[in-house]
Design goal:
Layout lengths: L25 E6 L19 H15 L1 E6 L5 H13 L5 E3 L13 H15 L4 E3 L2 H4 L19 H10 L3 E3 L18 H6 L13 H14 L5 E3 H4 L5 H10 L3 E4 L4 H5 L2 H10 L4 E2 L18 H12 L5
Length: about 325
């Protein structure tokens, strides 16, 4: 039998306490739902109909679950941003909030630093509530295309953008790396061997990719250099495998916060340490799920009520498995 055929059934008998509705009104500050505007429904997608009908259906789910607001991080720029604001934020006041993203295709132009800072102001006027930074910066964006150096996270060209975000009151939601295992060899010692075998392009080991520690250090230098800007470091600061280190960053950088999206697996396997982390930094940890349209690359974050209820159960009960 091959490993791919292995489907063990747990023999563990433990009490289960499903949670259908959150105890308190919830703000999910890490979602990617605006893609439903352009994405055609799939046959097995629970969200059918026009974009307007789909967003209304999500709101009905939110009402059922006591989910007050969704923050859509990847709201685009320019016309795309305006469309997302109109169809989501304005059409459903208080239920959806939209963030913008940088425009990297201008990064090689001499006036880019100030242009991008000014563009944030235009995005706020259009309705944007925050700025999302994806791992494009640090792992994909290159100076002049394939074969040229990667643009560093703390490149000074972005300094005006970080400062502008602070002055405009736009929090920066930043994702700059993936699980630790994605930066180590895909061998018998890699705890995500099966996952990386199924998705080899998720590995950032080798080639000219930076070490993960370099990416985290560069992000932290940005946070330290711009104390007037609020940073929300996604996925438990991209380092839930080491909550001691994340704690040291929170102690050092008062403008740093974290969120828990798509990292219940990491937190759940260290329940005692994770509980202490939540108690120590309860005013610095945000609720997020990374909810994405059905059929996304990571199905565990498929936008369904069941996915949200996993988070409620994890946070509200002592269920262990």
């Amino acid at each position: 039998m091959s490993l791919s055929e292995f489907e063990p059934k747990s023999m563990l008998v433990v009490p289960g306490n499903p949670v259908d509705k959150a105890r308190f009104p919830v703000i999910d500050m890490h979602t990617h739902v605006s893609g439903l505007i352009r994405r055609e429904p799939q046959p097995d997608d629970p969200l059918q109909g026009t974009p307007e009908e789909r967003f209304a259906k999500i709101v009905s789910w939110m009402d059922e679950m006591n989910l007050q607001t969704m923050v859509n991080l990847t709201g685009g720029t320019g016309e795309e941003l305006q469309q997302n604001v109109e169809k989501m934020q304005n059409a459903h006041p208080g239920r959806y909030l939209i963030c913008t993203v940088p425009t990297y295709d201008k990064v090689r132009e001499a006036d880019y630093p100030q242009w991008q800072a000014d563009e944030l102001g235009r995005a706020k006027e259009a309705g944007a509530k925050g700025l999302k930074i994806s791992k494009t910066l640090g792992l994909y964006l290159r100076e002049n295309g394939d074969g040229t150096p990667l643009v560093k996270i703390d490149d000074p060209r972005f300094d005006p953008m970080w400062d502008a975000a602070g002055k405009l009151g736009l929090p920066v939601f930043i994702h700059i790396a993936d699980p630790d295992a994605f930066f180590t060899p895909t061998d018998r010692f890699n705890e995500r061997w099966e996952e990386l075998g199924n998705h080899p392009n998720w590995s950032f080991y080798g080639k000219d990719y930076p070490q993960k520690a370099e990416l985290l250090a560069a992000r932290n230098r940005v946070i330290e250099k711009h104390p007037g800007t609020t940073f929300v470091c996604l996925h438990v600061a991209n380092h839930p495998e080491n909550l001691d280190e994340v704690s040291s960053w929170l102690d050092r950088y008062p403008n740093m916060n974290v969120e828990i999206g798509a990292r219940l697996g990491e937190l759940g396997r260290q329940p005692r340490r994770a509980r202490k982390f939540f108690e120590d930094y309860q005013d610095r940890i945000l609720y997020g799920t990374d909810a994405s349209p059905h059929g996304s690359a990571v199905p565990q974050q498929d936008l369904t009520p069941a996915m949200f209820r996993c988070y409620f159960r994890f946070l509200e009960t002592l269920d262990e498995y």
